[in-house]
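Journal club prep — side note

Before the paper discussion, L.F. wants everyone to see what a predicted structure for a comparable chain looks like in C-alpha cell form. Sequence:
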Amino acid sequence: MGQRGFASDNNSGIHPQILKAIGEANSGHSVGYGDDPWTKEAIALFKNEFGEDTEVFMVLTGTGANILSIQSAVHSFHSIICSETAHIQTDECGAPEKFTGSKLIPVPTLDGKITPKQLEKYLHGFDSEHHSQPGLISITQVTELGTIYSVQEIREIAELAHNHGMYLHMDGARISNAAVSLGVPFRTFTRDAGVDILSFGGTKNGMMIGEAVLFFNPSLSAYTKYYRKQAAQLFSKMRFVGAQFVPYLRDEIWKINATHSNKMAKILETEVQKLKGIKITQAVQGNGIFALVPHALIPLLQQQFFFYVWNESRGEVRWMTSFDTTEDEIYNFANLLRKLLNE
C-alpha cells in the first residue's frame, strides 16, 4: 500500500461502485470508440443534466479535455486569457499552446480567481493584424488555490467575454467539489451562467480515468471529433470511460464523494486553526487547504504524510483531501503538527 497523505486527490483510489461498473462492462465484446451502450447512456445522462443540445466528448485526461475545449473554439491567431495559476498555464507543459498555436496570457491573482476589472486591461487590439486577437477566457472551478467562483462572478465574466465576441471555457477538474460547496446544480454555474465549454472532471473524485468535454454552444464542436483523434484522446475501448460516468452521474457518486472530501477539508481547517504556528492563506471552499508552515517542519511532516510544497520560498504548502480520506487521518496529522510545533 502506498503512503497515505494529502498530496493530491489524484493519488486516491477508485470508488468501489465505479470499479464495479468497470468490471460489469468487461463482459463480452462491444463496439469501440464510443459507439457502445455505456457511453451512449453516459452521454444521455450528461444531456439530462445540462440540456439536450449539449455536445459531449469523452476523453482520457484533464489536459486532453482542456486542449480539446480550447482548440475547438479558437484559431492560432487568438489569445487565451487565464489566471496565472491556471492549470493550462502552469501544469500542462505548454500543451494548449502547442495544439492551438494560440498565445496564453496569464492574469496575476491573489486567490486564483480573475475578475472582469482585471480582464478589461487585456481586451484590446481587436481587429488589428499586429495583435493576437482575444478569443477565449478560461477559468478554473474549483481554482488551483482552492477557491470557488460564485454564480454571479461567472455570469459577469461570461457577459464580458460575450460582449467582446469571445468564449468562456471552464476547467472543471474539481467541478463536483464546487457544486457541493455552492449547493446548486452543475448547470446553474456553467451553462446557465454563460459558460460555453466545460471540461468536466471525474478522475480527481473517485473515477479511474476519464473526463468529458461539454459544449453548450454546439456550433463550436463542428471539428472536435477530428481534434480528439489528433490529440490521442479517442479511446478505442471508450466503454470503460462511459461505464464509469453512468453510476457517477446516475447514482450521484459525484456528490457523495465531493461532499466527503469537502467535509474532510473543513475538519482539517478547524484543527489547523487551533495551532498558532500555522497560517491558512486561502479560503477553504473545496477540498484543498493552503497554509504557511515553518520550513524546518515540512520534511518532518512529509516523512509520515506526503504532500506538496506550493511555494518553497514562503513555506506555503498544499493539503488536498479525497473521497477516501478518513477523519482518523485528519486528527493524526493535526496531532503530529501540534507535536512538532510543541503546542
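L.F.'s comment for the group: The domain at 255-341 is CATH 3.90.1150.10 (Aspartate Aminotransferase, domain 1). Keep this in mind when we get to the figures.
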